[in-house]
Design brief:
It holds the Pfam family Glycos_transf_1. This protein has 22 helices and 14 strands. The chain has helices spanning about 20-30, 50-55, 75-95, 95-100, 115-120, 135-140, 145-160, 170-180, 200-205, 235-245, 245-250, 265-280, 290-295, 310-320, 335-345, 355-360, 375-385, 390-405, 410-425, 435, 440-455, 460-489; strands at about 5-10, 35-40, 60, 105-110, 125-130, 165-170, 190, 220-225, 255-260, 285-290, 305-310, 325, 350, 365-370. Helix 15 (about 335-345) links the parallel strand 12 and strand 13 (about 350). Helix 1 (about 20-30) crosses helix 19, helix 7 runs antiparallel to helix 21 and helix 21 (about 440-455) runs antiparallel to helix 22 (about 460-489).
Length: about 500
């Protein structure tokens, strides 16, 4: 791929999380390769995003954020996400026409519903879809109504994902799951590993942690957990393992639980409360630090410290000073935090499932992989904190850093993405069929069915009226944009 190509990323919500970190790193990596990169997103809060999104490193354009909310009374998140992406896509096509007419490649991730729309209106622009993990496998189905509600969305996901020019995934684990989830997609996705900035430790401020009183002068060994405050992250595992340490050793250690937290997300708020209650049940003293002011009131003798939405500089400091990173999710698609820890020379304890099997080398090589059982994790906490000496820790740190530098650098990821776009240039794209051309209508109809089932409306007269309106609006939209296209030719 020649230098100076115009690459547009389409991402739903540019907050703080593993998927967002990957998107930002991919965008920066391609930009450093000499390409022009723009990220289109439906939401980006300067107070809740990565530094590159607010300091001018990347060009961020927020569209599709005015008609539909992220959820409706805490429900219908997937419906709203689809509607917001459709709004975002048509805003790019109809409002930012000078941008859309010059795009060489798209990088689409998480939601694939925009792919047929982009292919129809920009037939010369190639689309790479990055699959972090099939959304249909992440959705909960606790009731028959929820299962029925998900049917159209699952179908839309599989159908639209298969229309991408190329598909890549974040790990071999995700590749195997992808084939099971979408057996009708005739593509074997290749792996493009996420990355970390291997120069980050050099750029980080020396002692950001000195700003925070609870970290000043403490000789406690730190067990660090960094994850979004979500139940699937299984953070309670390390809380229970930490509580299992002998009391005389626990007084010499502290568990710090940091990570993505958004007050708009009900699960973040609820799960934080659940973890506090778990600490209470295990007789662990705990506190929550949300900013510098609240840090002044943190007692020095607490066992567990919660740091919601930890700033990047403090996160970097914690990764460099922790004695162990405890990475608790099961069957995690990839997991970027273990790489960040290893780059900082910190050993990792992770579950022996999913992505960490491809990043962490077991039995003290760069860390440990164990079943998600508190008793087994407690044994490793004891080993990592109190049994290995400084020489062993130093040798482990060197091995961990070398593994990341050799295999998971930003430059490696950018080069891999460039190779994928080179492949796209050489493969002949098949023409869209009638059904694919009418995908906006199909999506709209599926969404209508999904929301009506979800709210318990099964009146066929109402359903037919809604579907008819969507079909009419879709034809009108297609005709309008087709006329615009012809007028520019």
């Amino acid at each position: 791929m020649a230098k100076g190509k115009n690459i547009v990323f389409v991402h739903p919500d540019l907050g703080i999380g593993g998927a967002e970190r990957l998107v930002v790193d991919a965008a920066v990596g391609l930009q450093n390769q000499g390409h022009h990169v723009t990220i289109y997103t439906s939401h980006c809060d300067p107070a809740h995003c990565f530094d590159e999104c607010r300091d001018g490193t990347l060009k961020i354009v927020v569209r599709g954020n005015s008609l539909f909310p992220p959820s409706i009374l805490g429900r219908f998140s997937i419906l709203c996400a689809i509607l917001r992406q459709i709004h975002l896509t048509f805003s790019l096509l109809l409002i930012d026409t000078s941008v859309s007419s010059s795009i060489d490649y798209f990088f689409v991730d998480q939601l694939s519903v925009c792919i047929p729309i982009l292919r129809y209106f920009l037939p010369d622009t190639r689309i790479l879809f990055y699959c972090h993990f099939p959304d249909k496998l992440l959705a909960t189905r606790k009731s028959l109504v929820k299962s029925l509600y998900r049917i159209p969305f699952d179908w839309v996901e599989g159908f639209t994902t298969g229309l991408a020019d190329d598909i890549v995934v974040n790990s071999k684990f995700t590749a195997s799951v992808f084939k099971q989830a979408f057996p009708r997609i005739n593509v074997v996705p290749r792996v493009v590993y996420p990355c970390v900035d291997i120069h980050e430790p050099e750029k980080a401020q020396k002692l950001e942690g000195d700003t925070y009183p609870f970290l000043q002068g403490s000789d406690r060994k730190i067990v660090l957990s960094i994850n979004r405050f979500e139940r699937k992250k299984n953070i309670g595992l390390v809380v229970e393992a930490f509580a299992g340490l002998a009391e005389d050793k626990r007084t010499k250690a502290r568990l710090i639980i940091a990570g993505g937290y958004d007050n708009r997300v009900t699960e973040n708020v609820d799960y934080h409360t659940e973890l506090e209650k778990l600490c209470d049940s295990l007789n662990l003293r705990h506190a929550t630090c949300r900013n510098y002011i609240s840090s002044l009131a943190i007692p020095s003798d607490i066992d567990v410290l919660f740091l919601p939405s930890v700033p990047s500089a403090l996160k970097s400091f914690l990764l460099r000073t922790a004695s162990l990173l405890a990475y608790t999710p099961e069957n995690e698609h990839f997991g970027i935090v273990p790489l960040e820890a290893m780059l900082a020379g910190t050993p990792v304890l992770a579950t022996n499932t999913g992505g960490p099997l491809e990043t962490v080398l077991d039995n003290g090589e760069t860390g440990w992989l164990r079943p998600p059982e508190p008793s087994q994790w407690c044994k490793i906490l004891n080993t990592a904190l109190f049994e290995i000496d400084e020489n062993q820790r130093s040798a482990l740190a060197k091995r961990a850093k070398r593994r990341v530098v050799d295999n998971f650098s930003k430059e490696s990821m950018a080069a891999a993405l460039q190779r994928e776009y080179d492949i796209l240039d050489k493969v002949k794209r098949r023409e869209l069929g009638v059904l694919e051309i009418m995908m906006p209508t199909v999506v709209g109809t599926a969404v209508a069915v999904g929301v009506l089932v979800g709210i318990g409306k099964t009146d066929w007269g109402v359903l037919s009226g809604v579907m008819g309106g969507i079909v009419y609006a879709s034809f009108a939209g297609l005709s309008f944009v087709a006329k615009r296209k012809r007028s520019r030719v």
